[in-house]
Design goal:
TRAP transporter small permease protein, single chain, mainly alpha, TRAP_DctQ
Length: about 170
């Protein structure tokens, strides 16, 4: 049952990461448009910088949770050689759970900031694009990242029977 939930969750995060990929493709088209308009027609696209800022926030944020669940982030193993397996497992779980708590706090603060941005009708300077949808997307993405880290920490603390056999 837990494996099914994890597979479903990974599919959801992959779908979200594909959304980040679509935003990246749109950003590439925007850059091509900007270059074409600037150098061939002498008419730069005035809102390109703002759209690039907003797109970059989505590209990075939407990819974080999927990268975490597929263990694509860079890890450095300094203590693994010197610690015995149970201590290393507990330390790994602790790092995951502390990271999850930190990211949950950051997600909560980002959510409050986005809610304030919605209340104040905060928009970009030139194109007047509301900022809150992008800020909410970042907050949700950070919350999903925290959930992934919490699940990884719990899986490390309480491995399944197949994982226990792998450890021994």
């Amino acid at each position: 049952m837990l494996a099914q939930i994890e597979r479903w969750f990974e599919r959801l995060l992959r779908f979200i990461a594909y959304g980040g990929g679509l935003v990246l493709a749109g950003l590439m088209l925007l850059v091509i448009y900007e270059i074409t308009m600037r150098y061939f027609f002498g008419r730069p696209f005035r809102g390109g910088y703002e759209l690039t800022e907003l797109a970059m926030s989505l590209i990075v944020a939407l990819g974080f949770p999927y990268t975490a669940i597929t263990r694509g982030h860079v890890t450095v193993d300094l203590l693994g050689r010197w610690l015995d397996q149970p201590v290393f497992r507990w330390l790994t779980a602790l790092v995951h759970l502390v990271g999850a708590a930190f990211l949950a706090y950051v997600a909560w603060r980002a959510w409050l900031y986005a809610a304030g941005s919605l209340r104040w009708s905060d928009v970009t300077n030139m194109m007047r694009i509301p900022k809150h949808p992008f800020q909410f997307a970042v907050a949700i993405s950070l919350g999903l990242f925290a959930l992934v880290l919490a699940l990884e920490g719990l899986k490390t603390l309480f491995p399944s029977s197949a994982e226990r056999q792998e450890i021994q």
